[in-house]
Write a structure and sequence with these properties.
Distance between the termini of chain B: 50 Å
Structural class of chain B: mainly alpha
Number of strands of chain A: 16
Number of helices of chain B: 13
Oligomer: heterodimer
Largest sheet of chain A: 7 strands, mixed
CATH superfamily of the largest domain in chain A: Response regulator
CATH class of chain B: Mainly Alpha
Radius of gyration of chain B: 21 Å
Structural class of chain A: alpha/beta
CATH topology of chain B: ABC transporter involved in vitamin B12 uptake, BtuC
Number of helices of chain A: 14
Strand order of the largest sheet of chain B: 1-2
Shape of chain B: globular
CATH architecture of chain B: Orthogonal Bundle
Number of strands of chain B: 2
Strand content of chain A: 15-25%
Strand content of chain B: under 5%
Largest sheet of chain B: 2 strands, antiparallel
CATH architecture of the largest domain in chain A: 3-Layer(aba) Sandwich
Shape of chain A: globular
Helix content of chain A: 40-55%
Order of helices and strands of chain A: HEHEHEHEEHEHEHEHEHEHHHHEHEEEEE
Largest interface: A-B, 25 and 42 residues
CATH class of the largest domain in chain A: Alpha Beta
Strand order of the largest sheet of chain A: 2-1-3-4-5-14-13
CATH topology of the largest domain in chain A: Rossmann fold
Distance between the termini of chain A: 71 Å
Number of domains of chain B: 1
Number of domains of chain A: 2
């Protein structure tokens, strides 16, 4: 019995090296939880970039494989366990993710930094992440909410809203964004009548809405999630006749919301990271060809994955602590501009020793400690659909 | 005009939501009180029984809608309710036959039954997630409003709106019907009287020839009915998500205890006490003062006693206060 056991254990060690060694990239997104309706498109976008590189055959480190894991968006312990699994058992070389600010901070602090793994988040937007110590391992292709706060304040003033009530989800993302909106709106002469947090995952939001309604305001800013408390707050406000116009920041943009609420939401406005650069259109085309519709944070996810692979090529290494230095290099000027669908070409250029400037799907420009400078699209809900009307 | 505006404001944000939420809590508390007075244990699984009832309604709604049976402008849930009630009763009796009966035979202490009911609660919760999943389900259809806030404003010319959702109307009407039926049953019918006798003095009731198994059966039929109706109404009015029913257990128990455990009238009063105190304590009174006071007296702040984050804590506070000051509840019930 003992002999069998020992030989079994030994045989496991013998089998392992027999696997071909692929470069692996972890894709850790909230496939369950408050943004579960966005995560599939984000993951597919990242996998789209990976597939493109694999098909080109120009990647010096061989084939790349994406490994999905669930960040849950809200449960830091679960996200850390998932990231830990990616690094220790799947042996990923880098992580595309995580998505929500809270879990991203937790994974960065407790998993990515101790293990020395590069993380590029497509959608963590909390201003706090700009100053979080990261050993140069953390980047994001989404702009910080400090920037979104400015854009939202500008938009509200332009549209003639003088006063607004503000309800935010009670987590890092909601608090950070709310603080930024409040600061910028007040400095532009607007008035925030009340700032109140709401908890996600409740059935009944009538008490929250009652408090908001008493404070009043021309518009209600709902800095929450479209599948969660944000939806509840809007539905209850409409039911009670408390507010009829809403401002929807990035976490609230998605076609499931107008579909769930119906025609009453028409006329509400919002903002979401986006650009009218040719890259965005090219990305949508690629997505359509791959059989899915582009969605919020899809372009950012594509760019995150692309950046990882380009930086690996540039530094001729898949070791995070080496290629982390090349991320800013490939993302920014000078060099030949690279759009979605041109990753094969980019790899060739790098091999030839030429500089590239990855523009990607989001007109990417990394500033500061490695975060997108941020272009935003203005959203108008019309005809029960989210429409992008202009860019800034 | 200001006076009318103020009244409308209170009705819209406190009175109507309070009546609706209070009715839902009262139906839940009635279920707990009846199990407590007849079977003599606190049934923590009641929240999940409500969830089970709501789930059955949703599944039947989907079935009926696929057969194109509906009740426009009323929600389809109304037609499926009787069938859902039967399934929920069946589930309650099944649980009793398999689990609670065993402990009843052993003459277990009520605290053991209580722990057993917590086990049933977790099992039922798991079963529900297994069948319908943990996600948000909205099964409301038909006309959304009896009275829209905008229509009210246009009609009366007031600056405050008053909205009455169809679900709120249905909740209040159905609760009244159910409560009237229940009291008629308990006070006027022979079976109801035998239940009360059994609850008052078990030994004496057994000696006078009351069949205990029949009493238990009737108890579960009533509990299943109340749970299914309360659960479906709550899910219809808010939205159905399995784990919110776990959170509902606390206000329901507070309601039952505040009113006096084992006393049906107390359960109803308790339900409304809890519902209204949750709303009143977390409401911001700025606008009401604006309407009722002369302008120079209106303060700048929101005048909110507690932030809405503390809503769930209020049931706890009331529970503790009642247990400290008047452990029998408002109406004299049994002491847990």
């Amino acid at each position: 019995m003992k002999k069998i056991l020992i030989s079994l254990i030994l045989s496991i060690f013998l089998i392992f090296p027999a696997f071909a060694k692929n470069v692996k990239i972890g894709i850790i997104l909230g496939f369950t939880g408050p943004i579960e309706s966005l995560a599939p498109v984000m993951a597919k976008s990242a996998e789209l970039a990976i597939e493109e590189v694999n098909n080109s055959g120009n990647f010096m480190h061989g084939k790349i494989e994406g490994v999905r894991a669930d960040s849950t968006c809200v449960d830091a312990a679960a996200a850390q366990a998932a990231a830990e699994r990616l690094i220790t058992s799947d042996k990923v070389s880098a992580i595309m993710g995580a998505d929500c600010s809270g879990v991203t901070t937790a994974v960065l602090k407790n998993v990515a930094m101790p293990n020395g793994i590069v993380m590029i988040s497509p959608s963590a937007t909390s201003p706090a992440l700009s100053t979080e110590p990261d050993n140069g391992l953390f980047f994001r292709t989404a702009p910080s909410d400090a920037r979104q706060g400015e854009v939202i304040a500008d938009l509200l003033i332009e549209k003639g809203f003088k006063s607004a009530a503000l309800s935010h989800t009670n987590n890092d993302y909601g608090k950070g964004l709310a603080a930024s909106i409040q600061k910028n709106f007040i400095s532009r002469g607007g008035k925030i009548t009340v700032t109140a947090a709401h908890e996600d995952g409740k059935a009944d939001y009538s008490a929250e809405v009652a408090a908001l309604a008493q404070a009043g305001g021309d518009i209600l800013i709902v800095a929450g999630y479209l599948d969660q408390g944000g939806k509840g707050i809007i539905q209850t406000s409409l039911d009670n006749g408390a507010f009829d116009k809403f401002f929807l920041p990035d976490g609230m943009i998605g076609d499931s919301l107008p579909k769930a609420i119906g025609p009453d939401l028409n006329g509400s406005i919002g903002s979401v990271p986006g650009t009218d650069s040719p890259g965005a259109a090219k990305y949508s085309e690629l997505a359509k060809k791959a059989g899915f519709e582009s969605g919020p944070y899809g372009p950012e996810s594509y760019d995150s994955a692309a950046l990882i692979m380009l930086a690996m090529e540039k530094s001729k290494s898949t070791v995070s602590n080496t290629f982390k230095k090349s991320v800013m290099d490939v993302a920014n000027a000078p060099g030949e501009k690279i759009y979605p669908g041109e990753l094969g070409k980019a790899l060739k250029l790098i091999k030839a020793g030429k500089d590239i400037d990855y523009v990607g799907a989001t007109a990417l420009e990394l500033v500061g400690s490695g975060e997108s400078s941020g272009s935003f699209a203005e959203i108008l809900i019309d005809n029960e659909k989210t429409n992008k009307v202009s860019y800034r | 005009m200001d006076f009318l505006n103020g009244i409308t404001l209170i009705s819209n944000y406190i009175l109507i939501p309070g009546l609706t939420y209070g009715s839902q809590l009262a139906l839940g508390a009635l279920g707990i009180t009846i199990v407590y007075s007849v079977l003599r244990f606190s049934n923590f699984a009641h929240g999940e029984f409500m969830s089970f009832g709501a789930m059955t309604s949703i599944l039947l709604c989907w079935l009926f809608l696929s057969l194109e049976i509906n009740l426009n402008p009323l929600p389809t849930a109304i037609i499926v309710l009787p069938f859902a009630i039967i399934i929920t009763i069946f589930y309650c009796i099944l649980v009793d036959k398999i689990i609670f009966k065993f402990y009843r035979r052993q003459n277990s202490k009520s605290v053991i039954n209580l722990i057993v009911s917590i086990g049933v609660m977790f099992f039922t919760g798991g079963l529900i997630r297994f069948i319908i999943g943990p996600g948000d389900k909205n099964f409301f259809d038909g006309e959304r409003f009896i009275l829209k806030a905008k229509t009210f404003k246009n009609y009366t010319g007031l600056s405050e709106g008053l909205a009455l959702k169809t679900t709120q109307g249905i909740t209040i009407v159905l609760s009244i019907i159910l409560v009237v039926l229940l009291f008629w049953f308990l006070n006027k019918t022979k079976t109801g009287k035998s239940m009360r006798a059994y609850s008052d003095n078990k030994e004496l009731a057994l000696l006078s020839g009351i069949n205990p198994e029949k009493v238990v059966l009737i108890t579960w039929i009533i509990t299943g009915t109340l749970a299914c109706v309360a659960g479906t109404l709550y899910g219809l009015d808010k939205s159905y998500k399995p784990f919110t029913y776990l959170h509902l257990v606390l206000p329901i128990f507070s309601a039952a205890i505040v009113g006096g455990v084992g006393n049906p009238v107390g359960a109803i009063i308790g339900g409304f006490v809890i519902a209204f105190s949750e709303l009143i304590v977390t409401f911001a009174y700025k606008k009401i003062f604006f309407y009722f006071l002369p302008n120079y007296l209106v303060p700048d702040g929101l005048l909110q006693i507690l932030s809405t984050d503390y809503k769930i804590a209020i049931s706890f506070i009331i529970l503790v206060l009642v247990l400290l000051i008047r452990p029998t509840g408002i109406y004299k019930g049994k002491i847990i």
